Amino acid sequence: MKVPVLNASGKEINTIDLPADIFEVEINMGLMHQAYVRQMANARLGTHKTQRRADVSRTGAKWYRQKGTGRARHGARNATQFVGGGRPKGPQPHKYIKDMPRKMRQQAIRCAL
């Protein structure tokens, strides 16, 4: 594959021969998309976290006695229905890393070129 070399003013001063096995590869959009998704997923930190009932800094003692108040029955103040209580199924840290074979990664770069 012959490619012209241009100077700063835009005039062709030379031509160079680029290797066909790198620059004349058939484009595979699915492979390029898979490599892009992998790259973006591996850039994520995954450090998001909310406190669950066990993590909230509140007493586990019963809020008030069971009978005689006329109010609803309640246990600990760190239950999920109270303000300041723990989230029942909040986000927890985990890894978003995706893997891809080395030859597929190299082929995706060649497709992009």
Structure description:
- The protein is α+β, with helices and mostly antiparallel strands.
- It folds into 2 domains: 57 residues, no CATH class; 49 residues, no CATH class.
- Helix content is 26%, strand content 10%.
- The chain is built from 3 helices and 2 strands.
- It has a two-stranded antiparallel ribbon with strand order 1-2.
- Strand 1 and strand 2 form a beta hairpin.
- Helix 2 crosses helix 3.
- The longest helix is centred in the first third of the chain and has 14 residues.
- It is rod-shaped.
- The model has no long low-confidence stretch (mean pLDDT 91).
Q: What would a concise description of this structure say?
A:
With 113 residues, this protein is α+β, with helices and mostly antiparallel strands. The chain contains three helices and two strands, in the order ββααα. A two-stranded antiparallel sheet has the order 1-2.
Number of strands: 2
| Low-confidence blocks of residues | none
- Discrete helix count: 3
Structural class: alpha+beta
Give the SSE order as H and E letters.
EEHHH
Oligomer: single chain
In total, the number of domains comes to 2
Features:
rod-shaped, alpha+beta, 113 residues, single chain
